[in-house]
Amino acid sequence: MPKVLIPTPLRQYADKHDTVDMGGTTVGEVLHTLTHQYQELRRQLYSDEGKLRSFVNVYLNDEDIRYLKKEATPVKDGDTISIVPSIAGGAPVVEAPPQPATLSKEEILRYSRHLIMPEVGMEGQLKLKQAKVLMIGAGGLGAPLGMYLAAAGVGRIGIVDFDVVDFTNLQRQVIHGTSDVGRKKLDSAADTMHEINPYVQIDKHETALSSENALDLFKDYDIIVDGTDNFPTRYLVNDACVLTGKPNVYGSIFRFEGQATVFAYQGGPCYRCLYPEPPPPGLVPSCAEGGVLGILPGTIGLIQATETVKLILQKGELLVGRLLLYDALAMRFRELKLRKNPECPVCGAHPTVTKLIDYQQFWFLKQAGFKKVKNMKGGILAWSDKVDPKVPKY
Ligand SMILES: [Zn+2]
Questions:
Q1: What is the Å distance from ligand 1's center to 339 Cα?
Q2: Cβ atoms within 10 Å, residue 345
Q3: Domain coordinates in residue numbering, the chain
Q4: In the sheet where 223-226 sits, what is the strand order?
């Protein structure tokens, strides 16, 4: 019997199966039987007119059926059918078609240096205007990201942050000024971004990203940009990106060195392909402990902003499957090949991580001797802040 591989974002509609055996003599027949068995999946794959949706690609073994006999392509025992939803411009969920965007006279003037470039032009600028980007954190990486994405005309920018501006932030978090000390980073960042470009919509999400809210937050955006500096959030962002099918534009900084790549994009590797599990707290120093060169997040944040804009425009060669390493002291860039790990616990063929984990509380409770650890509301961060300050944080 032919085998059908179900991609991660669609598994929720197929009883969480990653593979199903389905009878049929053509690709169309197999998909018909499949979507008859899983009605929810039908809505994802087919339009009301019964046509395969344009953002869903179907492969027979390693060939796109569009280049074979489409749905009439014959199948035999042992064949593998893969459903490959495109995630450019959104997850494979049923959405109302976006309103056609237009540019006002002022916007045409504002973006004139983009409009005269063939790589952007009117089409690209409208793509930017219709794009929805979620930034996790309004700190060192979030500062250049927020300012340049707003300036470039990214139409809707969400920010997740719950921190306030501290004097020690000003050395690198240039989106905040001296008079912002003590203000919410969300308010300070949004003010700066609106001052740069009043035409962009900014959504303020005043919360810590957690296993409870991540999937809900991510679903409204096309691209997630990770500007966090701690492992629990980094794994949450990665897993939530894989589970929702959104690209994860990743950057990290430490002292004089930075890294950047694009994870979980069109079958490319994810963070867990690289590092399946986070290190226990205390093993790897944070910026607060190890220090960071103030200029460094500017460079890395702008590489993330560049990749975000390229993803929106669908131009150029993305940092997918490539880890860019930057050494500011040596002023040297290096590149490592990243491969998708077929055994990856979240994006591999047989995932063991099928829902989000709050590592923050996970480690603490395990250390305290609890064996059956489940998520608790607000996470350990809330516990540490509000209940017991002795509880260690990352
Ligand atoms: Zn992976």
A1: 9
A2: 17
A3: 3-85, 131-337, 358-394
A4: 201-205, 156-160, 132-136, 223-226, 248-254, 257-263, 322-327, 332-337
Give the CATH H-level superfamily of domain 3-85: Beta-grasp domain (3.10.20.30)
C-alpha 340 – ligand 1 centre gap (Å): 6
Q: Where residue 326 falls among pLDDT bands split at 50, 70, 90?
A: very high
User: For every residue of 187-225, which 3-state class applies, written as one string?
Assistant: HHHHHHHHHHCCCCEEEEECCCCCCCCHHHHHCCCCEEE
pLDDT digit string (tens) for 145-164? 999 999 999 999 999 999 99
Ligand 1 center to 70 CA (angstroms): 30
Measured in angstroms, how far is the CA atom of residue 346 from the centroid of ligand 1? Answer: 6
Residue pLDDT, tens place only, 219-265: 999 999 999 878 889 999 999 999 999 999 999 998 899 999 999 99
What's the gap in Å between 268 CA and the centre of ligand 1?
Answer: 8
CA–centroid distance, 311 to ligand 1, in Å, is 20
Ligand 1 centroid vs 292 CA: distance in angstroms? Answer: 28
Among 3.40.50.2020, 3.30.499.10, 3.40.50.720, 3.40.50.10490, what is the CATH number of 131-337?
Answer: 3.40.50.720
* pTM beyond 0.85, yes or no: no
Domain 3-85 identical in fold to domain 131-337: no
* Å from CA of 348 to ligand 1 middle: 6
Neighbours of ion ligand 1 (CB under 5 A): 270, 272-273, 344, 347
Three-state SS at 205: strand
